[in-house]
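Here is the promised in-class demo. Please do not try to memorize the tokens; focus on the logic of going from shape to residues.
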């Protein structure tokens, strides 16, 4: 069943956003401020209808369907997505400000869900997040569609910046917080820059998952990375190890 907002204006499509504030206002006009039957305006605008989980699912699935059919990200318009999902454009704009936000949520929907971390542990939480990075790498290897989406995202700076800001940056902050907890708990050295320590943990996993797509990603890879870093790489009893 199509959304009741199908009557909004269909013009003004430029890079997935409405042309100007008036167009966006017109598209979302069904959310409030309706006139009473006597022609007078309600004194307070009505709240918009609650978000529909079914509508959001239909929109995300519509984008995936179009991408699976070979449509490039750059070629998808909000109007086309709305028509495929069977909703009005206003339904999309009530949830996302434009294509970039929507596409980021599509990618997050296709990726493995980020596992919860305790927020109190150090190395234990680091292991959880490294393992999550490994499983996301496996997902990209097993899904041609997901792999192609990431390739296209990286060629569109605005979209990649949106993904970096909304997804990558929060994950990095969680990792840095876990490193700080590990340092405070005496699990890691306290004489090194926290960001350097974080890079030392994340770097090997990124090399395996991104830069070496044919490299193995065994189940115990996160544990092996942590063990190697914590124990050090110098041979036992060597001058470097004692230093």
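The designed amino acids, position by position:
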């Amino acid at each position: 069943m199509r959304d009741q907002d199908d009557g909004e204006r269909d013009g003004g499509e430029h890079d997935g956003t409405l042309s100007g504030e008036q167009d966006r206002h017109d598209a979302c006009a069904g959310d409030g401020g309706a006139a009473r039957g006597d022609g007078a305006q309600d004194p307070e605008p009505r709240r918009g209808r609650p978000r529909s989980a079914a509508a959001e699912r239909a929109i995300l699935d519509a984008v995936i369907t179009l991408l699976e059919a070979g449509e490039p990200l750059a070629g998808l318009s909000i109007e086309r997505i709305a028509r495929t999902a069977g909703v009005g454009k206003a339904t999309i704009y009530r949830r996302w400000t434009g294509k970039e936000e929507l596409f980021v949520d599509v990618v997050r929907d296709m990726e493995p869900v980020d596992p919860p971390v305790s927020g109190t542990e150090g190395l234990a939480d680091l292991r959880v997040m490294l393992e999550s990075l490994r499983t996301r790498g496996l997902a990209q290897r097993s899904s041609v569609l997901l792999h192609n989406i990431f390739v296209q995202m990286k060629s569109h700076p605005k979209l990649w910046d949106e993904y970096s800001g909304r997804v990558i940056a929060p994950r990095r902050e969680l990792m840095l917080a876990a490193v700080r907890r590990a340092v405070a708990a005496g699990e890691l050295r306290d004489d090194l820059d926290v960001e350097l320590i974080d890079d030392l943990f994340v770097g090997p996993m990124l090399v395996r998952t991104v830069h070496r797509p044919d490299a193995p990603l065994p189940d115990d890879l996160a544990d092996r990375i942590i063990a190697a870093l914590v124990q050090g790489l110098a041979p036992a009893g060597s001058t470097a190890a004692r230093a």
